[in-house]
Amino acid sequence: MSAPVPDTGPATVLVLDDNATTRYIVGSWLRRAGHQVVEAVDGTQALALLTGTPAHELPEIALVDVRLPDMTGFEVCERIKERPHTTDLPVVHISATAIEASDRTQGLHRGADAYLTEPLDPAELQATVTAVLRYTRARRRAERLADRVAALHRSTLALYGAADADAMVTAAALGAIELGAARASTIVLGPHRDNLHLAHCVPSGAAESAPEVRLSTGSAALLDALAHHTLGDATGTDTVRLTAVQWQDALATDLTQDHGLPVEPVTLLVARTKPGRPLVAVAVDPSAAEDLDQHRLLSQLTQATALALEALRSQAEEHALALTLQRSFLPARLPATEGVDLAVRYEPASDRSEIGGDFYEAIETPAGLLLAIGDVAGHSLEAAMVMGELRHALRAYAIEGHDPRTLLQRLDALLAQVRPGITATVCLVLVEPDRRRVHIANAGHLPPLLRLPDGSAHFLTEHGILLGLNLPQPPAATHDTPPGSTLLLVTDGLVEVPGENLEIGLAALRESFARAPGDLDETGGLLLESFAKAQADDVALLLARLH
Prior knowledge:
Elements: E1 12-16, H1 20-32, E2 36-40, H2 43-51, E3 61-65, H3 73-82, E4 91-95, H4 101-109, E5 114-117, H5 122-160, H6 165-178, E6 184-189, E7 196-202, E8 212-218, H7 221-227, E9 236-242, H8 244-252, E10 266-272, E11 280-284, H9 292-329, E12 340-347, E13 356-365, E14 368-379, H10 381-399, H11 404-418, E15 424-431, E16 437-443, E17 449-451, E18 457-459, E19 477-480, E20 485-490, H12 502-515, H13 520-531, E21 539-546
Parallel strand pairs: 1-2, 1-3, 3-4, 4-5
Antiparallel strand pairs: 6-7, 6-11, 7-8, 9-10, 10-11, 12-21, 13-14, 14-15, 15-16, 16-19, 17-18, 17-20, 20-21
């Protein structure tokens, strides 16, 4: 990395004067100092020249004579400053006649950065040009740095808001482009350490178009190869320049696919936040990191990517641990009950969501087979813990032989006393031993669906109030179930869509269940595939066919 270009280095200078001799003399002084000179004879020509020049090719300073044939130098300066294309162009006024204090004051008030009077001294001219360039370049560098710090801030927010590894590598690659890289590639191993995630980004070429990002996957072998060139097993950040051959050899270690990246020299910035973690790598074109300030920003971007990935990895690990705990609260197996076929499904919400309190249960009791489905309000470890408490309490009460209504009342009393402020919905279905009738006690849960042997399906809608409010429950409702009937009990995560009427989802569920295949496992899979594609809540589903 090199220091910034000296603020006093050579520049392109516009010399605007209608006197050919003055243009020649001033131009020769400037050229001897290493500057390039562009000449104009009047204000119209100078303004046209500036208008037709691309922003990156504009002169860095303009020396403007005050007395011009078509307009004053003051007017030329004002027009330069009022145009967005040239507003930052510094102007130095020169005059042999407008030399009074009032003239110099007017020139400075109307936008000039300096004012010289003739006869000119070569040393004074050079010193003035140098001083104006030094100030202008320092200001532009500070503005550019401020813009890039703001870009780093935006990229960091995008990194920490990334929902998955692909979104993260995309944000990092786009961030490197915003920080001035001509091309950028980001490489991380996903939070589950299953796949390498790589994003390659190049500017689109059109100012209004977003940069193009190409995503690919691979194996950890690529990061292992890159580690040999830099940090090894150490933590922290590092930067190394790889030749085209070294970069190509590293890419070749990933035998899973050809990433299609350009085989050119790269500057590789890497970070590792904890021992034993894979590297996070950002590869950019070497020129992007030559400037010291820019290198520091790119290094901070790489470090932010590593920290964001660590947060994503920790979240995934915590979610997996909580999900394992939640699954441990669910039944390890279902009872083998003569005359009843059972099938269950449990589908957690996305990895970004907290675990919930959805559960199912099937218990052999003295009065018959008891089926249960429930949902504790909220998404947290506490909700899962309460779910486990309710399920175990339900088993204990059911084995004692209590009817469904009494079971709900006991669960309600338990919840109100042990977990005040927490509510839950529970639906109980007691299947009589002859399988011809069911007794349903529903505490605020979605109604169960009953499909009859003729293929018709309807909800059993009787219900009471949810648990946790210490309020009485109505008596259980009784329904006939001809041989071949099928019951479906679900939690609301299957059909509830934020912003949509729940009745719409329930109607669609009833129609799909009526048309579902005869096999219960196939039916459960079909319902999950149809209704739970992007669920924001956990889903528990229980199917029972009565013979």
